[in-house]
UniProtKB/TrEMBL annotation:
NCBIfam families: spIIAB (TIGR01925)
Role, per record: Binds to sigma F and blocks its ability to form an RNA polymerase holoenzyme (E-sigma F). Phosphorylates SpoIIAA on a serine residue. This phosphorylation may enable SpoIIAA to act as an anti-anti-sigma factor that counteracts SpoIIAB and thus releases sigma F from inhibition.
Pfam families according to UniProt: HATPase_c_2
Protein name: Anti-sigma F factor
Domain Histidine kinase/HSP90-like ATPase: 38-143
PANTHER family: ANTI-SIGMA-F FACTOR RSBW, ANTI-SIGMA-F FACTOR RSBW-RELATED
Record-level Gene Ontology MF annotations: ATP binding; protein serine kinase activity; protein serine/threonine kinase activity; sigma factor antagonist activity
Keywords noted in UniProt: ATP-binding, Kinase, Nucleotide-binding, Serine/threonine-protein kinase, Sporulation, Transferase
Gene expressing this chain: spoIIAB
Catalytic activity: L-seryl-[protein] + ATP = O-phospho-L-seryl-[protein] + ADP + H(+); L-threonyl-[protein] + ATP = O-phospho-L-threonyl-[protein] + ADP + H(+)
Length: 149
């Protein structure tokens, strides 16, 4: 299959019910590719983790907040960006430690960033306290890797 170039953006209220919408929207968009079920599930999972972080940690579940997702497909590379204009992360290094959570009362596992790192080829976090957080997740799909060889 020839690699494609395409993009989409979507914005929605920072409410927990929209996490499922985000997963389905991104999955529907990337399903146009020659993607394996494992790759699709991994991308859906990282979208879910990033969106949940934006809603719960970025906005403290304030429905006035807005989560933005953009997805680009470029030569078999999927680039997902999840953005919020919430409170930001004070210590990114600490936030990325396995099992660390700022919301233990919500039974949060603290594995969001770890899962993102494990399922994607790259993870970048840009944040500013009081201004928000941008999470960029990139994955080269197996069919694109095969095209390189």
């Amino acid at each position: 299959m020839k690699a494609q170039r395409n993009f989409m953006t979507v914005s929605f209220a920072a409410v927990s019910q929209n996490e499922a919408f985000a997963r389905v929207a991104v999955a529907s968009f990337i399903s146009q590719l020659d993607i394996t079920m494992d790759e699709l599930e991994e991308i859906k999972t990282v979208v879910s983790e990033a969106v949940t972080n934006a809603i719960i940690h970025g906005y403290d579940e304030n429905p006035e907040g807005v989560v933005h997702i953009s997805v680009q497909i470029n030569d078999g590379v999927v680039d997902v960006v999840v953005e919020d204009q919430g409170k930001g992360i004070e210590d990114v290094e600490q936030a990325m430690q396995p099992l660390y959570t700022t919301k233990p009362e919500l039974e949060r596992s603290g594995m969001g960033f770890t899962i993102m790192e494990n399922f994607m080829d790259s993870l970048e976090v840009a944040t500013a306290v009081g201004k928000g957080t941008t999470v960029r997740l990139t994955k080269r799909l197996s069919f694109a890797k095969a095209l390189q060889n």
